[in-house]
Protein 1
Amino acid sequence: MPECIRRKRTSGLNSLKQLADHLDEFEPIAFEKISVPGGLWVYNDGDKDNHGLPVHSSIYANLKTNTPRELMAFPNYPQFHGPHSITTHEGVLNYLRNFTQHFDLLKYITFDTLVEHVSPILDRSNDEEKTKWTVTTKNLNTNEISKTICDSVIVATGKNSKPYIPEINNIGSFKGEVSHVHTYRKPEKYAGKTVVLLGAGPSGIDIAIDLSAHAKKIYLSHRHAVIESLFPANIEQVPGVIAVDENYVVLSNGTKLVADVFFFATGYAFDYSFLDSSCGLTIQPKRVFPLYKQLINAKHPTMAIVGVASVISPFLFPYFQAKYYVAYLRGIVKLPSKAERIEEANILPPGAKRGHYHDIDNNQWSYIRESATQAGFEPLPDYYEKAYKKWEEYRLAHLSTFRNTDFSFNRNGAFNFQYLNSQIA
């Protein structure tokens, strides 16, 4: 029976490659909703895809990576080409398509196919360790429904498709535009307007900066300490929003801001609605439970969800997660008992804020080392960790200008920053 991969994002492609390395043991098949490889990195100017379904991707026109390509490339395919360290979304898409072609992965992918439902099939002994799965799919060109029985399932749909929108008092009365940054595409649309962005995570900050060349004023609203980084003159940090009226936004300190546009930059909610409740997972907006090692369904370990973890290297971490999981499927990794897996899934990662069960941050490097030891593969060289931390330190200190910098490092841990614009220094 095949090993099924639901959708083919970055995590899905590298999971597919890990399975394809062992065709004597696996029969991989991947289901992808859109018509081409690249998933999240396929830019769509509208809010519907060619099948009339909501666009999964949150890519906007001017998006560039916030991590150098030297720290993004999969270890098994370092050919991440481009003129500079920071890459456009087109550059990332080209890399992923070259990866797909280089490893001949297209033959395992069924495009234009929506996974509608996944449900477990226990063997006759009701052994949850050997659960098989029924994957129900819909051909979006013909509307034909099919069922595939799989020995294991890897879910790789990503986590940036269902906007998380907190309740704001009286938001429905606002006369201006209200939307989530998931649908943001081009800054020219907001020329001369005053914009309130609620949320100062990476997306909120990047979109505020993208807007700054066209919008009249951007208020970056958040509840945290003032961000100590130089922003364009028309970006102002303000406290959190507690209410909205017809023409203005009310902040927690009582200030009223007149605005034309209100953007939620409040992140995303996990959406695995295609998983049957009998899969044994509890899906909350900000948590999937119980996932052993932020990856494996603790109750039915023949299911994994790659890409749940947050605050991680976006290519490297899921690469090693997939490598570890395939080692488990091959019988190399031995898991602890079900009770121990569930207990581990309930532990907050060291240093994570309360309730942020999937924030890995600096623990990702020990995670990778531990996974490599258990699965018997080569760990990531230590200089990656040093370079990543050095880059993050630099990025946070130069939020408006870091993308104008080329970054390089070597195995001895030496770093080099080359400014592409003299105004940055």
Protein 2
Amino acid sequence: MNVTNCTRPTQFILVGLPSVLGLESVMYASIFLLYILSLMGNGLIITIVITDCHLQKPMYFFLSNLSVKDIGYTTVFIPKLLFNYLSVNHSICFYCCVIQLCFYFLFGVTEFFIITLISLDRYIAICHPLRHSTIMSPRVCLKLAISAWFGGFFSIIFQVVMIANLPYCSSNIVDHFYCDVGPVLKIAGGDTRLIEALGFLVAVVVIVSSLVFTLISYLFILYTIVRMPSTSRQQRTFSTCASHLIVVSLLYGSVFFVYLRPTVKNSSFSMMKSVAILYTFITPVLNPFIYSIRNNEVKDSVSKMVQRMVQGL
């Protein structure tokens, strides 16, 4: 096909979630509930970190950044997904699709940087406790957080710009429930090998380096915990890291399957959509609960906030 005479489509059609006969209404109602829980849980984390002076610590600062990411991450596509389910035409305008793709990957890539920063903070706090407040000062933490967000932006912006300038002549049907790189490239014309190679390179550099850094940090942490003389202190110290390890396992396990593959244009997306449900719907909901359920400081802060609200009534 001659792509030079191709007219760019004004909109794409999103296929949606994997079809489950007779359970579509239940599925979308569940997604709406998960979205509300995500907004409430992550919003609560942000609120208590800002308002409680006892939580003005590096770990909670980075955790609040993770909550901001989760709110943005789910808001990028869930409202549109729910709206399309209620409407006859499951469409999304071309530039809306590009913007969705851009912000989806901005939040996604930034998450790996924030996870790495949490690992760094836990390593310094446990392995070098006397130097922790000096190394991880508020100013340093702010600079690290800003670097994480800018790093996420510059990691994906060039790929997004190239995708936006591709011709789309053969089809405008995106086989996914949001605008993901693989399904969009599958309907694109022209040579997409450079974009795929760039995307794979970013995935390898960001995801693998983040995972390696996190694993090395926790190897040092575990070594330090084992050498602690008190068993109760060992258990208390490890409990502060266990929640982070759970989030890391959920995140990296699903993302490795979907994005660490050298070619995406000729892939089948039925399995990818099923796996994507884990890290797009489930993980953002679980993050605030996983981090808070094993954390006494967070639970105490929530309890005090509820008491103040009750007294105010």
Protein 3
Amino acid sequence: MSDMRLVVVGAGGRMGRQLVRTVTEMPGVTLSGAIERVGSDLLGQDAGLLAGVGELGVPLTDDPLKAFIEAEGVLDFTLPDATVAFAELTAQARIVHVIGTTGLDDEKQAKIEAAARHAAIVKSGNMSLGVNLLAELVRSAARALDEDFDIEIVEMHHRHKVDAPSGTALLLGEAAADGREIPLSERSVRVRDGHTGPRPVGDIGFATLRGGSVVGDHTVIMAGEGERIELTHRAGDRAIFARGAVKAALWARRQKPGLYSMADVLGL
């Protein structure tokens, strides 16, 4: 089978440049397009030169439809509104769409699900192998431990991250809620301030830290009387997310249209 032709959207950003580098390094894929927003100063520049891997002959463009028609898959770590627009185009082109974008609300999630009727979409709050294995451990631990163990999720990211809690923290929260067989939407605590009273039994708490250049740290704490379990993942390099995204694209190339997760990709 020939190399899979991939388009990187948001190719001028930090994650976009990492995706370009990773596509050039991994076997079985090739960069066929690079997209940036309308009006960007980077339009016309070579994606490879921007990413530091040498000239690739793939200039940044603001015309995603043309690039998608000529490709087999899209790697997307952008912003919610952009991701929804890209999903509509990948559905039209009937190609693979790998989504690492976080901060999607219910309305945007519904639009992604609609697009998945025509495109193979892999969407995850985190594309790394380690985080998805951690989610399985959290699910199992939450199932094994009763509500005498309080669950708290602490995450830290760089100062530029715009959404909170992180998509990974929510992924871990969903895993914990699934283990407890409760709806996260009804039992999560996102903010504590002032006189809050005692902690309600069974809630899942989130704490958000922002600062510096932290790629992503996540700890799930299960605190009982006289003992505490902590499950932690620390990301030191964005390349782990990019490699996971490329693996997801190669996996989805063989799948029917539908909405998949990294757990599906990894067979967890």
